[in-house]
Design goal:
Order of helices and strands: HHHHEEHHHHHHHEEHH
Strand content: 5-15%
CATH topology of the largest domain: Four Helix Bundle (Hemerythrin (Met), subunit A)
Strand order of the largest sheet: 1-2
Number of domains: 2
Number of helices: 13
CATH architecture of the largest domain: Up-down Bundle
Shape: globular
Distance between the termini: 19 Å
Largest sheet: 2 strands, antiparallel
Length: about 325
């Protein structure tokens, strides 16, 4: 991982946060603070939590003064939150500007909740963005329910808005991208294990999260990995999987085992040069991408839709618990 790669992650993070805030601007005050069961009390609480995580981590990692956890009640409206977020974005950019590539592999140790965590710097910096993706997905679901969807916040869409070419900065370490993909598998397993506990009615119950049902969301997670593997390996587009072809979680898991094995055969066959190469594929126009950026998108996309699944599962009384990247690192 290089500093320029981390900066790209944070450009995406700012872009996605702005999409959420722009949609939140359209809410009434009562909608902003309407109670929900997503874990942060209301939409304002969720937005402040995303900001607070970036603020807290950068204070810790870069030795900045930390005034404690941000209080949602200190932000009367979205304008106040946006102003504070702009300050943090400036601080984040300033901090990242101080880094050299070798700094990304320095070790950070932290005691939290009676546990000792040891991370390299790049892992925590990616976690902050991944964490934001998780809670933006929850926020997007709430905003959509209020009639103000923020639209597509995929990392791949962000890439479409930038001219990204391969350079020396894009030469990622194989073990770094493999670590992110192992996290993706671990988090998917956490979701599937909980999904096995729901009833068939809950699995197929209609919702407004974009994929029709929990089953639809799980199949979409699986087919995204399948689709990107085929696209990156062969340049082809797949026939989308149909949720109706998977009557239960066992059927989804069985197909996912096959897809995961095929995905890792593809990954294991890539060289360092392959990961940093520019590939081209046809979408609504010809796209040019650094290959590992596409793989990073697979992980980020998974985080978004796992957050939706986790919210549904929690509502069914089957929470998957903490699926943060940092939690995976503790167990890996």
């Amino acid at each position: 991982m290089k500093v320029e790669d981390i900066k790209l992650y944070y450009e995406y993070n700012d872009w996605a946060n702005t999409r959420i805030l722009d949609a939140a601007d359209k809410l009434t005050e009562s909608q902003l603070i309407a109670p929900n069961e997503f874990g942060w009390g209301d939409l304002r609480g969720a937005l402040v939590h995303i900001l607070d995580a970036e603020y807290g981590w950068f204070s810790f990692l870069f030795g900045r003064e930390d005034e404690g956890i941000l209080n949602p009640e200190a932000f009367a409206d979205v304008a106040a939150l946006r102003a504070r977020w702009a300050q943090q974005s400036d601080i984040t950019r300033q901090c990242l500007a101080t880094l050299q590539d070798e700094d990304l592999y320095r070790l950070h140790t932290r005691e939290r909740g009676g546990r000792t965590y040891n991370w390299t710097l790049w892992q925590v910096l990616v976690h902050v963005v991944n964490h934001g993706t998780q809670h933006r997905a929850e926020s997007a679901a709430l905003l959509t329910g209020f009639g103000h969807s923020p639209g597509d916040m995929d990392m791949s869409l962000f890439y479409n808005m930038r001219d990204i070419n391969s350079s020396e900065s894009d030469k990622i370490k194989r073990e770094d991208i493999q670590l992110l993909l192992r996290y993706n598998d671990w988090a998917n397993d956490r979701i599937l294990n909980c999904a096995e506990q729901v009833t068939s009615q809950q699995l197929s119950a209609a919702n407004d999260f974009g994929w029709g049902s929990l089953r639809g969301a799980l199949v979409h997670l699986m087919e995204a990995e399948y689709a990107w593997r085929v696209l990156l390996k062969d340049g082809d587009h797949i026939e989308w999987l149909q949720p109706d072809n998977f009557p239960d979680v066992a059927a989804i898991r069985a197909r996912w085992i096959i897809e995961r094995a095929a995905f890792w055969r593809y990954i294991d066959g890539l060289s360092d040069e392959d990961l940093s190469s520019v590939i081209s594929y046809e979408g609504d126009e010809i796209r040019h991408r650094v290959l590992w950026h596409c793989l990073a998108h697979v992980v980020n996309h998974g985080t978004q839709h796992r957050a939706e699944c986790a919210a549904l599962l929690t509502g069914f009384g089957c929470s998957p618990g903490n699926v943060d990247f940092t939690e995976f690192l503790l167990e890996d």
